[in-house]
Every structure is written in C-alpha cells, then in structure tokens.
Design brief:
disordered N terminus; alpha/beta; 2 domains; six-stranded mixed sheet
Length: about 650
C-alpha cells in the first residue's frame, strides 16, 4: 500500500476486528449471501425493478452478441464452415450449452456467491485471496498477480466492446441500402464520440430508459427467433449434446477453431459479475431466467433455422431474418442496444479503475461522483478520453465488425479462466470446502474455458494481440506502481522515530491554538511533517491528529467501524480511518463525526499537513532502471493527495522531501 493510504502494523486492533468479521462471513456463504445487495429487504416489486435495471446495464453486452456471434462462427477466415445441417445443429447446441454452463452454472449459481461484501468482479474476488498484512505466500502472490492481470485484460475488453458492438449494428444499414455502405464508419465514429462526450453527465438519468429499451430489444430477439423456429421446430433438438459431438467429428480442425467465435455468445459473463454490486444476485438471476436466456436461445435457434433454409444469408443472418419493412427500425433498435451495451462496459471500467486506485495498483487520478444517492455512479475523465481515442482508433483501423471479431474474445477467455482459478482458492480457503469438492467443480469449468482460450489463440496475429498488449502494458504499470509505492514507503520510514519519543523531547514546547491533522501511514511513528514543524517552527497545535487512511479488502466499511482513536499525549491523538475499496475517501467528513473523550475541535479551524515526496530514479536497489523511470513518470502524473482525500485545498500545507528509488 502507498505511504499515505494505509495503516502500519503498530495499530492492528481495527484491522483484526475487520478480518474477524470477514472470516465469519466468508465461512458461511449462505449467511454472507443473505447480507449482500438485493439479498435482504427487497420487496418483490423492488426486486422486479432492480431486475429491469439489470437488463439495461448487466446484460447489454451479452444481449447484443446475436448480432455477430453465429455469423463469425461460419465466416471467420481462419476456419470457414459449411452451412449444413450438422454444423448448424452443432453450433446451436454449443451456444445452448455455453450459455447454460458458463453463465447459468458458473457465474449465476457459483461465482456470484463469492461476493466481497456484495461487490463482484475479478478485482473484488482477488481481494478475497490477498495475503494478510505481514504475511505472504508464493501461491497467494501468484493468484493476486493473475487477478491483477485479469483486471488489466478487462480494460482491453472495455475498448473493443463499444467498437465492435456499435460497428456491427450500424453495418445493418448496408442491408437497408447499399448506398449506406460508405457511411457505416463515419456514423459509428459519430455515435462513439457522442457516447463518450455524455459520460461526464453520469448514467443516472439515462439509466431510467435503459431497462425499457433493452426489454424491447430482448422481445425483438425472441420474436425474430420464434418466427423462424416456427417453420423449423426441429432446431430445438440441438439441446441434445449429441449434436455438439457430431459437430466436432464433421470438420474437426475447423470445428475446434470455431470455438473462438462460438465463445462470443458468453462474452458478457465477466461484466455480469462485475456489475453485481449495483443490483444484487437475485435481481440479476431473475432477469436472466425470465427474459435474457429465453430471448437469446430463441434467437440463436431462429438464426439456425433460418440458415438451414437460406444458407446464403450467413453474411448478415441477424438482419436478414427481419421482414424488409422492419429492417430500418431493427437497425435503429440494434444501435440503441449496442450503445447501452457500450455504456455498461465503460461504466464498468470506471468502477474497475476506482477499485484499482483504492487498492493502490494505480496512481491517484481524478474521479468524479455523478450522483449524490448512488456511490457507484462515477466518472473518470482520463480513462474516458483514453477509451474514446482507443475505440475510434479500432473502428478506423479494423473497419468492419468481422475484422474486430478477430481481436475480440481472447482477453475475456483468459479473464474467465483466471476467475475460475481464484474462485477455487476462495471456496477451499475461505469457504472451507474440501479440495476434492473444489476440483470437481472448478476443473470441468477450467477445461471448457481453456478449450475456448486455445481456439482464440489463433486470433493473436489477426488482432488478438491488441487486447493482450493493453493487458500487458497495464499489468506492468500496475505492478510497477505497487512495487514503487512499497519502496518509497520503505525509504521514507528509514530513521522514523516513535511518536512518544518525539513528543517527550518536545515537552514544554509552545502550544498554538487550532487543530493540526498530519496525514501519515504508520501509526505509532512520528510523521516527518510533524518533526519538521517542531524543529523549525518550534510549536505544537493544541489539538494534533495523526491520521492514517487504510483501504480495507472489502468494498465498503460500516460507519461504526470507520475510525479508531487512541490518545498518545495531552491533545495528541492517533486516528485510523478505514474506507472500502469502492468508497470515496472523505477524511474531513469522517473526522468531524468522531466522538472520543477529550477530543474536541472546530472542523472549520483545521490545518492539514501532507508529505510530498519528489521521487527520483537512482541506484538504490529494488527496481530495474526502466521500472524506476516508469514509476517516476506515473508519480508525477498522480492526482494530489489533498483532492484524493477530499481535503479543503485552502487549508492544506505540504512538506516536501526527496526520495531516491
């Protein structure tokens, strides 16, 4: 953890209490699940409304997969498949079982029970297996590293999803009239520009219409599919896994490679898990079984039935299913659905960034909260503009959704496999399941996901390299920042002295009116800013608070466990403040709410003292030269600690120091 964000080992009572609570909840999945969002206190009507909202956010990505997944399975250049009975039935069978096993079983039934105080996503899951402070193991370190890499890969997914979703929808205009062909890319770019420019307004107002639009979309999927299944009802027999086996024996090599495209039907699985904290497991599950799964299955079966009668329609099978008079409205509706799907991924990346900053894997950057009532609605300007440039660059570079499909999938398959590995550790170590039981559950899932991953490997030269490159770059950045912060903290702490010794030497020193707050990590030690103030100004404020801000392993910390106070000398107090990794650290607000015997002060008469380190790359051991320079660069671009902690800038005093790493 960073030098100004975590608490030292000297003050462990608060951390032990939190750890004990977490262990108790983790050991009882049933009890813990009952305390998560959506699992307690929701009326049936409330659950229904949350399920409606989940349709617009959680299922946007997976709900737009019918636009391109079956088409790419048959037309991908590396494995073109014949449109015949065996292949069509086989693909429909694989789509059915992929949705059932990956989404229904793995995510909804299993992984979503491994929540972190109601929050989901690979970073929240990784926090569950992070070694406790002061201890570490090679296995835990490896899993944490994998979790960070999986998080980095999701950024690549967040770039590709808006590009491929919007482009695949706008390409439907080519079915309306060939005169629109030259307008596809400009229209897609304009839509993406508009999408990213409205992010600063927040998703609250727009979110109210997301659910209804997606209901119309899923109804359309179901009706389109049902109209074709009606004329070819035998396609429903594809639920028999025999057809999937027959598919692999028909064109074996191409059939295996086609798994990379078939996987596109479940690409929203990780996003579904990451958005759990906004809606809860029950509403998400209700939306899946009541609306999403039936609509997707009917549409995939409908596409299969339509292809059996019109094999030449494979290049645009989704739009060709619609009657010609309804084609333009379908393109407009599909475009709206893809915008919603893109919005969900963009919001997810914002949340992921906030979690990474709180866990000290990314530098502090500006994060704006766009809603006073929903803490999860945030806007991250730097990430927003970076995503916009990358998405538009992908559209201009790849030019078609088919080309983009080659870049899509490998990052998500790797992240899913990593999630399974971390989930195994959670159920064996935290839920106390036997390793045999864990293997029986996780090994089959991992084998399926590794099969999908193996089929996606061939995409690397054709565009898959992009997602891996984004993941690798962010992985290096995250690990460099984490390692650099640890080294800086170690350098700063050399020569630290116990606070009691410093105060004893300051006995009789002049006291001045007012309150001083020294932000410093290690409770029990004297902050350098306090030492310098005593040395040069030879004064001590009547009320002095030494405040350490800790980021807990859970998303949110309850108010009664927010702060721990200890008196170390007359007028001098040590305060440990803890925030969850999903929370916005507001230090003045927490300090103003503290009630402790002898601690009285005017919140409007407080001066905040911060340490400001000037980091330089030197010859000190710990990092290689390239990483040192990268860390120095990242540190210079980090947002100020005063803004990160919501301190009033007019009352902040920074004390500088030079640190060589």
């Amino acid at each position: 953890m960073g030098s100004d964000q975590t608490a030292g080992p000297e003050s462990v009572d608060f951390a032990k209490r939190l750890a004990a609570e977490n262990a108790a909840k983790a050991s009882s999945p049933t009890q813990r699940a009952a305390e998560t969002h959506g699992e307690h206190g929701h009326s049936k009507a409330g659950t229904g409304m949350l399920a409606l909202g989940a349709l617009g956010v959680v299922y946007g990505d997976i709900g737009t997969s019918p636009l391109y997944s079956l088409k790419e399975t048959f037309t991908e250049k590396s494995h073109p498949m014949m449109v015949d009975n065996i292949n069509v039935y086989g693909v429909c069978s694989l789509a059915f079982w992929a949705l059932l096993i990956i989404i229904s079983v793995k995510y909804l039934f299993l992984v979503m029970r491994a929540d972190n105080r109601g929050e989901g996503g690979i970073l929240a899951l990784t926090a569950l297996v992070m070694p406790k402070r002061g201890s570490t193991t090679a296995k835990a370190g490896l899993l944490v590293g994998l979790g960070v890499f999986g998080t980095a890969l999701l950024y690549g997914d967040g770039i590709i999803t808006p590009a491929i979703s919007v482009l695949s929808a706008v390409e439907g205009l080519g079915e309306v009239s060939t005169s629109f062909d030259s307008w596809v890319i400009p229209i897609a770019v304009v839509i993406l520009l508009g999408l990213f420019f409205v992010q600063s307004r927040g998703t609250g107002a727009v979110g109210k219409v997301f659910g209804p639009i997606m209901i119309i979309w899923f109804i359309t999927l179901a009706v389109l599919g049902l109209s074709k299944v009606w004329s070819e009802p035998g396609i429903i027999a594809s639920v028999n896994p025999y057809y999937a086996v027959q598919y692999f024996t028909h064109e074996s090599s191409h059939a295996f490679l086609s798994l990379g495209s078939i996987f596109l039907v479940v690409t929203g699985g990780e996003a579904l898990y990451a958005d759990m904290g906004h809606f809860g497991r029950k509403p998400i599950t209700l939306g899946w079984y009541a609306v999403v799964l039936p609509a997707l299955l009917l549409n995939y079966w409908g596409q299969g039935a339509f292809l059996l009668q019109n094999p030449e329609a494979i290049e645009s099978v989704f739009f060709r299913m619609a009657p010609e008079p309804l084609l333009l409205p379908l393109v407009i509706l599909a475009t709206c659905a893809t915008i919603i799907a893109s919005q969900a991924l963009i919001s997810g990346v914002f949340s992921l960034t906030a979690q990474a900053v709180q866990l000290d894997y990314l530098p502090r950057i500006q994060i704006r909260h766009t809603s006073s009532s929903h803490s999860g609605q945030i806007y991250v300007p730097l990430v927003n503009w970076a995503l916009m440039i990358a998405c538009i660059g992908l559209v201009l570079g790849f030019r078609t959704s088919s080309n983009l499909a080659a870049a899509y999938g490998i990052a998500v398959t790797m992240t899913m496999a990593i999630t399974t590995l971390i989930f195994f550790r959670v159920i064996t170590d935290r839920w106390n399941w036997s390793r045999t039981r864990g293997f029986l559950i996780c090994v089959p899932l991992l084998l399926i996901e590794l099969g999908f991953l193996g089929a996606n490997v061939i995409k690397i030269p054709h565009g898959g390299w992009f997602a891996l490159a984004v993941g690798a770059i962010l992985m290096v950045q995250m690990q460099t920042w984490r390692r650099g912060r640890i080294l800086v903290a170690a350098r700063i702490h050399r020569g630290e002295r116990p606070i009691e010794d410093v105060l004893d030497e300051a006995e009789g020193i002049k006291r001045v009116t007012g309150t001083a707050v020294f932000m410093f990590k290690d409770l029990g030690k004297a902050p350098p800013a306090l030492v310098n103030n005593l040395k040069h100004n030879k004064v001590l404020h009547n009320t002095t608070l030494i405040v350490a801000v800790d980021t807990a392993d859970e998303p949110r910390v309850s108010p009664e466990h927010r702060a721990s106070v200890k008196k170390v000398a007359p007028g001098v107090f040590q305060v440990e403040v803890s925030f969850g990794f999903m929370e916005d650290p507001d230090v003045p607000k927490v300090l103003a709410a503290i009630t402790h015997p002898g601690l009285e002060y005017d919140p409007e008469d407080v001066t905040y003292f911060l340490g400001h380190e000037s980091i330089i790359a030197g010859k000190a051991p710990g990092m290689n030269p390239l990483q040192e320079h990268l860390f120095v660069f990242l540190n210079r671009g980090a947002d100020s600690a005063s803004r990160f902690f919501n301190l009033p800038t007019e009352r902040v005093f920074e004390v500088g120091s030079r640190v060589e790493i």
